[in-house]
Sequence to fold (130 residues):
Amino acid sequence: MEDYLERYPTGPIVGVIDDPGLARTGKKIPGASWQRDPLSPPFHVNLRWGRGLFRGACCFRCTVRETMRARLPIRFEEAAVVRQPGKRASEEEKQRYREQKKKHHLSTRAVALLGQQRPQLDEKGASRRR
Fold:
């Protein structure tokens, strides 16, 4: 990270979040579930079996005229889908599912990632940068 901060001393640091899925074929792969296929057209949703992932990166502006070009990956982790309880589940299990769903949401993970990155950037001398 320090190399990037020295190489690109001005301009904002942009946090980028992505959730690429990995297509899988085995039905016994942990964390695999049915997901929307990103290559399907918007008017017809196709599904595929795969694993969800969570990827975070920082982008730096190379020059004033260029857009954000330099990308530094900072996080890559599994984003498994929380399993929904069955029809005969107790009210306690349903409540636990709702809590887990809120906790493991991609937006919540993105906010937590950015919250962890800001103090690290401040320690490395980027406290005045947006």
